[in-house]
Specification:
Elements: H1 2-40, H2 44-47, E1 59-60, E2 66-67, H3 70-82
Antiparallel strand pairs: 1-2
């Protein structure tokens, strides 16, 4: 009986991290899908749930490279300078995102 208990505990110890990692991978893929869907609307307000709103945060992007005014500055710049340059935007998830890296 002790051997059976040890075997069950050993298998549980070995299998649970794998199951948890897979669930984490699914959560990450769902998050990426929500992220791409939100930004594809060209409305940063739809993606705002993904960003911290602390006033002292710095955001980095292509142009300008640095936003020292936190999310509001980043959002406002996108609305004023980036979104008007697109008639539509479709972001798609590349296949490598859905595969584990390790």
């Amino acid at each position: 009986m002790k051997r059976l208990l040890v075997a069950v505990l050993l298998l549980t110890t070995l299998c649970l991290p794998s199951l948890a990692q897979r669930k984490g991978g699914d959560d990450f893929n769902d998050l990426i899908k929500r992220y791409y869907t939100a930004w594809s609307t060209l409305n940063p307000d739809n993606a705002s749930f993904l960003y911290a709103k602390d006033a002292d945060l710095v955001f980095f992007d292509i142009a300008p490279l640095k936003y020292s005014g936190g999310w509001p500055e980043y959002r406002d710049n996108f609305k004023k300078n980036v979104a008007p340059g697109f008639s539509s935007l479709t972001l798609i998830i590349h296949e490598h995102v859905s595969k584990p890296l390790f």
